[in-house]
Specification:
It is built from six helices and six strands; from the N terminus they run H-H-E-E-H-E-E-E-E-H-H-H. It is an alpha+beta fold and 196 residues long.
Length: 196
């Protein structure tokens, strides 16, 4: 397998992750992860198996609350059987906030630790980097009255996303990596260690 083949396989995994997760194709979605892989998100930190189970439960529940993912460009650093991939992404979530239907759009990057086991590249850990977000009411004539204490307690990169997740009763992590700061610098250092 050439380096170009490796890069294609990694990129295909990243792109398939978004399609399979958002469409509920759970059997294929499982193939994006190696055994023992870890997923980190605002609302979840743990094994890929538990993440898949939670995502599946939410998907099958249906209703007006859901999220989808859009991807942009990908940068891949390869070192032997390991890689770090960064992919521009957008998470679009629909939910009700205090009775008002809203969309939250969060822009950032997926920071993925990849490994080649046998002939297969797959994710060992995914850590999103949350750069900025916004909230829009579906009906511009309505807008939720935010609890500013809750809203301001979260980092600017995912403040509105965290707000709707908190209102939904999810335990939201408050120190996820953003565009700048010690959390993202620590993530970059882990990436360098992974490749070394």
């Amino acid at each position: 397998m050439t380096e170009a083949d490796d890069r294609r396989q990694i990129r295909d995994c990243i792109e398939s992750w978004a399609i399979w997760r958002d469409s509920g194709d759970w059997e294929n979605f499982k193939t994006c992860w190696h055994d023992g892989a870890v997923m980190n998100a605002t609302w979840f930190q743990g094994s890929s198996e538990q993440f898949i189970a939670n995502a599946r439960k939410s998907f099958e529940k249906g209703g007006a609350t859901f999220s989808v993912h859009f991807l942009g460009g990908t940068s891949i650093e390869l070192r032997g059987a390991r890689a770090v991939a960064q992919t521009k992404m957008m998470i679009s979530s629909r939910d009700e906030v205090d009775g008002v239907a809203c969309d939250v759009v969060c822009t950032g990057r997926f920071y993925d630790f990849f490994e080649k086991r046998g002939e297969r590249w797959a994710i060992v850990e995914r850590q999103p980097i949350y750069e900025k977000d916004r909230l829009d009411a579906l009906d511009p004539a309505q807008f939720p009255a935010f609890d500013q204490a809750i809203l301001q307690s979260f980092p600017v990169g995912y403040r509105h996303l965290a707000y709707i997740q908190t209102k939904r009763g999810l335990p939201v992590k408050r120190d996820m990596p953003g565009l700048r700061g010690p959390e993202v610098e620590a993530l970059y250092a882990r990436g360098r260690d992974w490749l070394a």
